[in-house]
Design a protein that fits this description.
It contains five helices and eleven strands; from the N terminus they run ααββββαββαβββαββ. It has 174 residues and is mostly beta strands. A six-stranded mixed sheet has the order 1-5-6-4-3-2, with no helix packed on it. Strands 7-8-9-11-10 form a five-stranded mixed β-barrel. Strand 5 and strand 6 form a beta hairpin.
């Protein structure tokens, strides 16, 4: 005998309780490999995917931007009972900084940035304004030995505000 079987399935009400576009404020409960999890009333958990935590950093993970217990606003982006999915966006509740960045920064502008992540296809560099750009491997031309945390001189090659991408080159190669 189970009491749970006697109660109605709360997922039949998910799109009524949390319709797409609903703004929620709640604390981060935990992290998963997909992003941040927020526990909500009635037994629901909502996922904030890694891609929905930062406008400026395309490779950010939820646990690098948010902390457990941090109370944040979020906007429901997916709410379905079949399959059972409840997703939200944190970045949709804060202004998109890309249009103003694209207006104020130009191709050719130079920065000292910090190596943030190294991948097979290039090096992500965090600029002083907290935006993250990519120096593609083809622009590294033999530069080896870079490690996360190194400060390097870079130059903006291109800004694609719509795709939220900054292409960089090493300053000496520009």
């Amino acid at each position: 005998f189970s009491v749970r079987r006697l109660l109605p399935d709360p997922w039949t009400l998910v799109d009524i309780l949390y319709p797409v576009g609903t703004r929620i404020t709640a604390p981060i409960s935990r992290f998963s490999k997909h992003g941040a999890i927020v526990d909500l009333p009635a037994g629901f958990s909502i996922l904030i995917h890694h891609s929905e935590v930062s406008w400026k950093d395309s490779v950010a993970t939820a646990d690098s931007v948010l902390t457990i217990g941090q109370v944040i606003p979020m906007l429901v982006t997916v709410s379905t009972s079949n399959p059972r999915k409840l997703h939200a966006s944190y970045k949709s509740t804060i202004p998109n900084p890309w249009p103003s960045f694209a207006e104020t920064c130009r191709s050719g502008e130079r920065f000292i940035g910090r190596v943030y992540s190294i991948r097979d296809y290039g090096v992500f560099v965090r600029l002083p304004n907290e935006f993250v750009g990519l120096v593609h491997t083809s622009s590294l031309r033999g530069r080896t030995g870079l490690v996360v945390g190194d400060d390097i001189a870079v130059q903006i090659v291109a800004i694609d505000a719509e795709s939220r991408r900054i292409s960089l080159s090493l300053e000496s190669d520009a």
